[in-house]
């Protein structure tokens, strides 16, 4: 029976122990590194938490101010819509006032034209008479009638209309006569004058 050398066995055991010790030391070093990393992360996270904690009051203020801003914007939007509605109502009212003003002006002009055309014929101011008839014909007859109805003034309006229609026919007849006289007398100035008035009267003839 052979026996092993004790010194060899001790050396082998020592080698194994040293390897195991080295392994344990390496493992310990690794664990220490991990622990240090965790500690560093813990410190970093604690600093972050402290920073966030300091921001929380500010964030609450910002949130409150943001909500106030949203409420203000909503109030402005509501007010703008109300103001827009009032502006639209004012525009409608303004258009109605403008329309009424135009209709009243037409009635005033109608009365002026009715009186003016007769005076112009008496004064032999046929150009002025033609201008009165022209102004009358530029008015919307249906609007005149509606305005007169609204104002319970139909009879006076129709009287003025008939006056202008009759005056237009009378004016055309007078100017035709004057034109023929000017032709017979070879009065070139008068021929040109009455010819221009007759041209306007022909327009009246087509509109009356």
UniProtKB/TrEMBL annotation:
GO biological process, one term: Golgi organization
Keywords from the named record: Coiled coil
Keyword Coiled coil recorded: yes
GO cellular component, one term: Golgi transport complex
Coiled-coil residues: 10-48
Superkingdom assignment: Eukaryota
InterPro entries in the cross-refs: COG4, COG4_N
Conserved oligomeric Golgi complex subunit 4 N-terminal domain location: 52-147
UniProt xrefs under Pfam families: COG4_N
PANTHER family given in the database record: CONSERVED OLIGOMERIC GOLGI COMPLEX SUBUNIT 4 (PTHR24016)
Name the UniProt record assigns to this protein: Conserved oligomeric Golgi complex subunit 4 N-terminal domain-containing protein
Native species: Callosobruchus maculatus (Southern cowpea weevil)
């Amino acid at each position: 029976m052979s026996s092993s050398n004790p010194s060899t066995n001790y050396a082998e055991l020592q080698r194994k122990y040293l390897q195991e010790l080295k392994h344990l030391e390496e493992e310990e070093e690794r664990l220490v590194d991990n622990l240090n990393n965790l500690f560093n992360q813990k410190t970093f996270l604690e600093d972050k938490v402290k920073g966030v904690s300091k921001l929380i009051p500010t964030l609450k203020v910002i949130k409150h101010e943001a909500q106030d801003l949203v409420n203000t914007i909503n109030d402005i939007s509501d007010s703008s819509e109300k103001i827009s509605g009032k502006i639209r109502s004012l525009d409608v009212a303004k258009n109605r006032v403008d329309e009424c003003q135009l209709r009243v002006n037409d009635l005033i002009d109608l009365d002026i034209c009715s009186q003016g055309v007769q005076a112009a014929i008496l004064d032999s101011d046929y150009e002025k008479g033609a201008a009165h008839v022209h102004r009358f014909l530029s008015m919307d007859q249906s609007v005149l009638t509606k305005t007169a109805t609204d104002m319970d003034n139909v009879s006076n309006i129709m009287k003025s209309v008939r006056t202008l229609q009759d005056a237009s026919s009378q004016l055309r007849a007078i100017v035709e006569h004057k034109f023929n006289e000017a032709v017979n007398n070879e009065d070139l100035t008068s021929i040109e004058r009455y010819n221009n008035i007759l041209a306007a009267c022909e327009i009246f003839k087509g509109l009356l």
